[in-house]
Amino acid sequence: MEVLISLLKRNRPEAQNQDTLLSIRIDRNDPSVKDLSSAPSLGKRVVAELVGTYMFVFVGAGSAVGGFIAFGNSDPAVALLIAALGNGVGLGVSISATMGVSGGALNPAVAIGLLIGRKIPAKDVVPYILAELVGAILAGFSLVAVVPKSYGDGVYWGAPPHSLVQGQSVLAAIALEAIMTFFLVFVVYGTIVDERAPKLGGLAVGLIVATDVFIGGPLTGAAMNPARAMGPMITAAIVTNLNAFNLWYVYWIGPIIGGAIAALVYAYGLFSKHP
Known about the structure:
It is a single chain. This protein has a single domain, classed as Glycerol uptake facilitator protein (Up-down Bundle), CATH 1.20.1080.10. The chain has nine helices and two strands. It has helices spanning about 40-70, 75-100, 110-115, 120-145, 150-155, 170-195, 205-215, 225-240, 250-270, and strands at about 1-10, 20-25. Helix 2 (about 75-100) runs antiparallel to helix 7. The two termini are about 30 Å apart.
C-alpha cells in the first residue's frame, strides 16, 4: 500500500544536509523501507504550526505596539519601518525554526497554496489552519498580558485597519492583499519548495514580507495572512471593545486568491518538468 507523504525532510550528509520540501512516495510492502521515524506525526506538525504562528504574531503584532510605545503617532515613517522589520524578521525566524517539522507554513493562505501545488496532503490543511488561528489568538492575548492596555489599545493590538483609507475601495483592498500574498507564496515556492533553488530557510520569505509591509502597511496593514489578521482582531474586539471585524473578509479572500494563483503559476508552470 502506498502512502504519499509531503513533508520537510533533511537530506543525508552526503547531500550537504540541505532542507528540501519533498513529496515522497513510500511503498510499505517494500522491504527496503524500514524506518519512517524521520517523518513527524501530524500531531507534531500541528504543534509546530501553532508555536511558529504564535512566535510570528507575537513579534509582528508586538512590533506595532512597541513602535507606538516608543514613538506614539509622532513619526509614522519610523513606525512603518519597525512594523516591516518586526513582521519580516519575525516570520523569517519562525519559518526557519519550524520548517524541519511542519514545513513552516504558518499561514492559511500558504497552506492552501501548498495544497494546490500538491505539496501537503489535503487531510493536513484544516488542522494546520486551525493550529495557525489558535497560535495567533494566543499571541494576541499574550500581548495583553504583558503590555499596558493603554499602549495596546493605541494600535488595536497590532490588528489590521478596521476601516479603509480615504478613496480606497474594498475591491482594491482585496486586490492589494492578493498581490502581496502572491509575492509571498511565490517566494515560498521559489526558495523553500523548489529543490533546485538555494536553501535560504525563511530569510527570503521574511524579506518579501518586510517589503510588502512598506507598500501595503499604510493601506491595508499588509497582513497577507488570515491568521495574522484574525488573532489581533479578536484581541482588539474583546479587550478594546472595538468592532475590529468590519473588513475581516479582506484578509481571507485576498490572501487565499493571491496564494492560490502563485501556487498555480509556480507548481504547474515554472516547477513543471515539461519544457
